[in-house]
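Why does this matter for the project? Reviewers at the last site visit asked to see concrete outputs rather than summary tables. In response, this paragraph embeds two records directly. Each consists of the residue sequence and, immediately after it, the corresponding structure tokens. Nothing has been edited or filtered.
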Amino acid sequence: MPGSTRSAGAHEEEDETMDDLSGRVALVSGGSRGIGAAICSELAAAGAVVAVNYRSSAAAATQVCGDIQAAGGRAQAFAADVGDPRQAAALVASVTESLGSVDILVHNAGLQHTAMAHKMSDQQWDEALAVNLSAAFYLSRAALPAMRAAGSGCVVFVASASGSVAQVGAAGYVAAKHGLIGLTKALALESANKGIRVNAVSPGITDTDMVADLDERAKAGLLARVPLGRMASPEEVAATVAWVIRGASYSTGNVFHVSGGVAM
């Protein structure tokens, strides 16, 4: 993959559908756990070479890569705090040097602090915006030039039902996810004439570490808002992300909800 070249015309012809991801380089932020790990596995199974980004969970990222490799796929772990603009840019550069230009960018890394707005600290607010929103901009800014030069590419932001409806005690998270949907539309409009699609997938309550730490009363309160009456699995969200990348060839600037009906 390093040093590989593809003509823009051939790239555009192949991109009419990305059903076969063989040879594509996919960068997934927050890929070591939960939804991110499931996305990495799903894309690798479709043939993509996957860059598994993590911030601190090196062992988990190594495990994800090992599982993918054991199944016959290709994956490599890359450490970076994508909420830091310099680290985000360096991440894209490292992936490009090691695996080739990024064809698919999935920003999945997320962070939620639980605090009422009037009790939320500056640090909590800043972290929520940095990881959930600014990181998507930093990664896109670094990855889009090569996609534009190639005349193709796909960006998916993992947003949240909180990007459409509010919840108590998560002002930073809610604001960031609303902003992420706005960024999706802005980048889609700017990139469409270069053959690049930008979409968002918005999960609702999903069975991940973010939910595991909640007490049963809190979980019951969240589930009471879900018409389907259950949590999503990470694999269900990942399947939607993969479909947006592989099959939704005429969709850009859209938000695909996987929320059990919360955002209807």
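We now turn to the second protein, recorded in exactly the same manner.
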Amino acid sequence: MTVPPEFVHASRDFDRFLLDARETLGHATTHQTWYSVLGVFVTFRARLSVPQAVAFAQALPPLLGAMFLFEWDPTQEPRPFTPRAELAREAKAFRIEHSFLPDSAIEDVAAALRRHVDRREFERLLAELPPEAQAFWAVAE
């Protein structure tokens, strides 16, 4: 049995995502982009149960899935979803000294993420989550 291609190309695919997200967010570096994406991921992850978070991570390419779970404390109880503007403020406040997030951060990261996932698998997973979780990753067409 061979190594699955998504693992063989994981680093290349992750770099492509960071470059795409950097452009979408209007950042100067992928270091800024890392913290911006992480802030959005942490904000979303805080609202999921452990099984939901693991399922979400598995719907992402390998290194994005690892990033989603990075430094996670799964013993914390999920928080309720709030309006998108509040969620965006929370994401912007994540590691404030490294935050470069625009007000459109969640939608920007969602747009970039959707360009780098298996769309059918991602939509299938989102359909199993609460409507607020689906709305978090919604982007204007």
